[in-house]
Amino acid sequence: MRSYFVAAGSVGMMIALVSMNAFARQKPANAQEAKAEFTQKLNDADINHDGKLSREEAESAMPEVYKNYDKIDTKKTGGISQKQIGAYFAAKAKRQQVARDPGSLN
């Protein structure tokens, strides 16, 4: 079960990268590379290096995360972690997949 959540998080981060047009250069070869790129982008955006993105940090460096900030910050703490971002985009990808193919849950 744990490996499912790790894979879902990786997929979510990969979706986040696609959504943020981070693939303008060259696409990562696999989910591991996509996760590494996302982690680097998150670290670059995290100006105060607290491991979380404030709304302001997201606004200046990660527009797709900023656009969905209130949906990602479910605990309303004012800071979102890489895990929260990955979970949000994994769930969003799952909803989109089900909308395209309702039978995909079976």
Give structural notes.
This protein is mainly alpha-helical and 106 residues long. It has one domain (2-105): Recoverin, domain 1, CATH 1.10.238. It contains 6 helices and no strands. The protein has helices spanning 2-19, 31-45, 55-61, 63-67, 69-72, 82-100. The chain starts with a helix and ends in a 6-residue tail after the last helix. Residues 34-58 have a biased composition (Basic and acidic residues).
Helix-strand sequence: HHHHHH
Please bin the fraction of helical residues. Answer: 55-70%
Strand proportion, as a percent range, falls in under 5%
Number of strands: 0
- The value of Rg in angstroms is 14 Å
Tell me the CATH architecture.
Orthogonal Bundle
Number of helices: 6
Average pLDDT across residues?
82
As for the CATH topology, it is Recoverin, domain 1
User: How many domains make up the coordinates?
Assistant: 1
Largest sheet entry: none
Residue stretches low in confidence (pLDDT < 50, at least 5 long) are none
How far apart are the termini? 17 Å
- Structural class of the helix and strand makeup? mainly alpha
Q: What is the top-level CATH class?
A: Mainly Alpha
Shape: globular
Summarize the structure.
The protein has 106 residues and is mainly alpha-helical. It is 64% helix and 0% strand. This is EF-hand domain-containing protein.
